[in-house]
Model the fold of this input.
Amino acid sequence: MYALLAERSPQEIALAAFLIVVSVAVWVFVSVLRSSGQSQLPHPASVHKLRLWFALSLALLLAASLALTLPRMPYPAANQVPDKVIFVAAKQFAFGLSEKPVVTEQEWEAASQGPALRLPAGALIEFRISSLDVNHGFGVYSPNGRLLAQTQAMPGYVNRLRVRLNEPGRYPVLCLELCGMEHHSMRGVFDVSNP
Ligand SMILES: [Cu+2]
Done:
């Protein structure tokens, strides 16, 4: 059961849970509608039984949701040591990615105009993202253009974003926050290849 769920995307699990809840709600609605024609009050014992059944199934649903979702919480992963740390400095209108901190103008120019970084596939990468001017967004896209992870790039702050990229290829980075006239063209890139 758990292995089956692990293969599903969070969207598919959410959709399935939503459909189950809606089915139960429709069933309750139809039952109430059917019983509304009967004039006599239900027996207290049957009401008590129904209430008990409802409470038990609710408790079971809650326990199952916790058992399935708690192991996926990202907090214990904070203790993991990343395999590689990449420093990112955003600045109008490009991203500088480097294995060394990018603080000065010269460092940013070298990092944003140099060749694309090569990162090992399957490794835990930690991006340390900041900005040298205004707020930007740091969005990592898959080679086929799907948004994989994102965080803000803010002046004076370092945001950490951890990703594990298994698929080799060229990953575009796009700015996700309107940051000026050339925001739409603000992008970066890095490559992922098998080590
Ligand atoms: Cu930007």
